[in-house]
Amino acid sequence: MAKKTRSVEVNGRQIRLRPERYSWSDFFMALPAVLLLVLTTYYPIAKLINISFTDWRLTSRTYEYVGLKNWIWLFTSKTSTKYLLNSIKVTLIYTFFNIAIDLGLGLVLAHLFNRLTKPYGAMRALIFMPRYIAMSTCGIIFLWMFNTDYGVINRMLEWAGVQNHINWLGDGKLALTSILILTGWHGVGYSMMIYLSALLGISRDYYEASSLDGATPLQQFRYITLPLLSPTSLFLFITTFISSMKVYQSVDVMTGGGPRQQTEVMVYYIYRLAFDDNRIDRASVVALLFFVVLLIVTASTMRITNKNVHYEA
Amino acid sequence: MKKLVALVLAALMLFTCTALAEIDPSIPTDQTTEIVFWHSFTGDDEAALLAQIEAFQAEYPYIAVKPQYIGGYNDIHTELASANAAGVGVPALCVINVPRLTSYAEDDVVEDLNPYIEAFADQINFADFYDGMTTAMNNDGKQTALPFGQSGQIFYYNKTLLSELGVTFPEKLEDMDAFLKTVSEATGKPALEIHGADNAYFYCMFCNLGAYMIDVETNTTGLDAEVALDLIKRIRSWVDAGYVKWVDTDVGNTLRLDFTSGATASVLYTSSLYSSYKAMAEAGTNGAVFEVGIANQPMGITNYQFVAGATLILPSCECNTQAQKNAAFLLASYLTAPKQQLEWATVSSYYVTRKSASTDPQYAEAYQALLEKLPETAVIDLNSYVSKTKHPLFDKCGDVFENYMSEIMNNGMDPEEGWEMMIEEINDTLADA
């Protein structure tokens, strides 16, 4: 098949590299994986685009093509713009604070538990343990904990002198905070472990050398630890960002998007359109918009943050 | 001549329509017809249901039923919609809740049961169902479902406490103020807790004052009536005075614990919990021992009670054969027969959907057994049960209604401001169809 000849210059001499060979067998080897990817990822996306131009209700077996009607509805209808903007706002607020909790607290915990002894290992395991529990299970447990009258959190606050029971999940100002407490508790152990492994990978030489130069622990953290943790931070940032934008389970179990849509994140809004309103056509335009927003934000975040990442540890 | 031709044509059309609506009611007896039945019942309710299915299979050995618990009504809807879209895996018989029926009928995803009712007239005795229930399941003449696990939105009260205080639970809305004040001041606790996370529970009070969620003629909300605002203000004043607690989160647990521990004198919730509330209150599970009483929705200018709960539908998917659909209808007829309904109600506390269950002497013993176990069942007058407005956006408008009620009752929103915003949002929702 195609042959390419390349050469590189080494110490002023041109060295010819062996031509890269491609053969049809390479392509056929990759074909099963490509087909699987097409079938499970690209076909659904194509189908989603297709549905967005129809009037398909979930309970109906037939549909007609309606052109841009759903897109026009998305940007012009009073209710859609209201709910859409609200869900974008809620999702971004949730994402911002969830990243702050996971990365910030994860880093602090990693520093606190950065000792390779058995008691520390046990404590690390305790913090990581929630990760093993399904989010829906955690949601139900927290639902009880946040119960206004019988929840352990209000009881503890009562012992601490707060007599008025807080309506954690029914008060619009607190409901999202309650969800953040749950997801933070669930996810922080993972960030801690990733940071911990990265911390152990930083050579002690940097710290010894800086100590000789009179650097304080804070300066060491600022000028050595943080820069050398930047690839890990970038990885955690991107993965937490994407998972936060897609949050659904905790919202579904804890608040169902309420009170008054104040915890209605984008994925929940899409779900509500598709399965409560049966408007799979409208759900698909919102899902596509969400996909594009997620793609743009992730790509630009990577582009911006990549410039400040130091890969040599 | 023209008249004659027109008459002949009309007769032909009528004949064609009748012929189209007919079904072949046969079920082969020389081979097994398998049917899948999706339901939403767990615990004792499921055990009772499975026992009835066993009995049905013994009576019809050529029908094999595969009952499958799917989850709550929303889970069933999601699964059913997905299976329906795929055109495979659709059950022959399925449980679904009343509000879904309107859109199911519009989208033709359920069989019209009228031809089945006609073909299986001997087995079903359709006229014996309570009219309000069957009407709620009838969409433009199409019978979309049979009433099965029916329930209502009722008040449970602490009968022992109320007798001690010398008060009775009010039958009229106008008497609520005095009742709530007396009980709250005597106990120092809320006299009533209302399920605020689902409009189904408190909407009836608005309707009985003449304020309806949707005015179908104008496609706007009828909650813009002044009486609705007055009632909202009134409930808010009860909440502010500590007479009423508006429960909108973790509702099931909170109402159960508050009522059975004596933290409130009454709650507004689903009738299907009567059996479990009664058992807990009598056993003193949560620290208070008392007798449980039941009251209907208080009367305003009308005395409506609304039908809710489970229904039985036959999905119209072609993936099920006519014989399977017939077998499914036969099972539905069996499960909704007076004898089975009485047995089922004794365990589950769901309403008996048949008029003859309480009037026909052949069921007198079973009915007496039901009353012995759940005496307050007699308080419920199922003849006063009616259907809510049938509109595909009813539930969505209901969501807006309950959201604003929560804001007004629990988060300090001004009642008038909240009411105006709510009306605007419901009208926008209706305009957005």
Strand order of the largest sheet of chain A: 1-4
Count the E strands of chain A.
Answer: 4
Which structural class best describes the helix and strand composition of chain B?
alpha/beta
Overall CATH class of the domain at 93-259 in chain A = Mainly Alpha
Mean pLDDT of chain A: 88
CATH fold-type name of the largest domain in chain B? D-Maltodextrin-Binding Protein, domain 2
**Helical proportion of chain B, percent range:** 40-55%
Number of domains of chain B: 2
Characterize the main sheet of chain A.
2 strands, antiparallel
The tally of strands of chain B reads 14
CATH superfamily of the domain at 93-259 in chain A: MetI-like
- The 3D shape of chain B can be described as globular
Return Rg of chain A in Å: 25 Å
* Rg of chain B, Å, rounded: 23 Å
Q: What would you say the CATH architecture of the domain at 93-259 in chain A is?
A: Orthogonal Bundle
- Name the CATH architecture of the largest domain in chain B: 3-Layer(aba) Sandwich
Structure annotation, total helices of chain B:
19
Largest interface: A-B, 32 and 34 residues
Enumerate the spans of chain B where pLDDT stays under 50 for 5 or more consecutive residues. 12-20
Structure write-up:
The complex is a heterodimer of chains A (313) and B (433). Chain A has 313 residues and is mainly alpha-helical. Chain A has a domain at 93-259: MetI-like (MetI-like fold, Orthogonal Bundle). Chain A has helices at 24-51, 69-76, 78-112, 118-128, 135-145, 152-159, 172-200, 204-212, 217-228, 230-245, 249-254, 266-276, 280-306, and strands at residues 3-4, 7-10, 13-16, 20-21. In chain A, strands 1-4 form a two-stranded antiparallel sheet. A two-stranded antiparallel ribbon of chain A has the order 2-3. Chain A is flat. With 433 residues, chain B is α/β, with parallel strands linked by helices. Chain B has 2 domains: 16-150 and 308-380, 3-Layer(aba) Sandwich (D-Maltodextrin-Binding Protein, domain 2); 153-306 and 393-431, D-Maltodextrin-Binding Protein, domain 2. Chain A binds chain B through residues 57-61, 73, 77-80, 143-144, 146-150, 167-172, 255, 258-261, 275-278, and chain B through 74, 77-78, 81, 84-85, 87, 103-104, 107-109, 197, 248-250, 253-254, 257-258, 263, 395-396, 403-404, 406-407, 410-411, 425, 428-429, 431-432.
